[in-house]
Design a protein that fits this description.
Length: about 100
């Protein structure tokens, strides 16, 4: 819930990319997250007929089970954010509140 609220409501334009590796209770596979946010601006051009590129936003958010955790592998929960104006302390606090 925290991650959905973060990406969809609060900071979506400031988070360019997010990758995560999660361990869920009762799941033997690693869970992989990926979020990519792209923003395109309108570009004025000198193309005949008044053609121009329009502004657009494209978001990819996906998560899926990956390979099983190895018997000697430490099960971890880690998310990496790439963006601007991100408050590392707030992100870390929100993420840690989700962990059991």
């Amino acid at each position: 819930m925290w991650l959905g609220t973060l990406l969809l409501e609060r900071r979506s334009d400031d988070i360019y990319c997010m990758k995560g590796l999660l361990s869920f209770e009762g799941m033997s596979e690693r869970f992989v997250l990926l979020h990519v946010h792209s923003f395109y601006e309108k570009l004025e051009t000198n193309i005949p007929l008044g053609l121009s590129m329009e502004q657009g936003v494209h978001d990819i958010f996906q998560g899926s089970p990956d390979r099983p955790w190895g018997p000697e592998e430490s099960r971890i929960n880690k998310i990496v954010f790439i963006g601007k104006n991100l408050d590392a302390e707030t992100l870390e606090k929100g993420f840690k509140a989700c962990l059991l």
